[in-house]
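Moderator note: this is an archived Q&A kept for reference. The question asked for a predicted structure of one protein chain; the sequence and the answer are reproduced below.
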Amino acid sequence: MASAEQQLTEHFQRLSAGDQATLLAFAAFLASRGGPSPGVTVKPPEPVMIPEPEIIERPAGESVVGALKRLSKSYPMLNKTEMLSATSDLVATSIMQGSDPAGVIDELEAIFRTHYAQLVSANK
């Protein structure tokens, strides 16, 4: 059976960059609560390098669902679950009200840009 440290490393490597940063922050929090064990030195976590998004150009006549797929590919480092509420509400509203797809796509792009900026800011 793998040691706890090996298990933690294996889990860590399977996480997205954003989730890795969250895990590091949580580990730092836990380590700071009780202080280090005798003989153990605790070094601060190194910042996680957040990759730049690879922006895919918006094709003419793109659908809202197509835009979500394109933006997910452009921003693979983002946790889509954290954005689910904002994006799903926007998509549902656009479908129910028949909103202009270009305007909805502009708003989706803004959501992705904002979440990316927050991720970068949190990892400084």
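Archived answer notes: The two ends are 36 Å apart (CA to CA).
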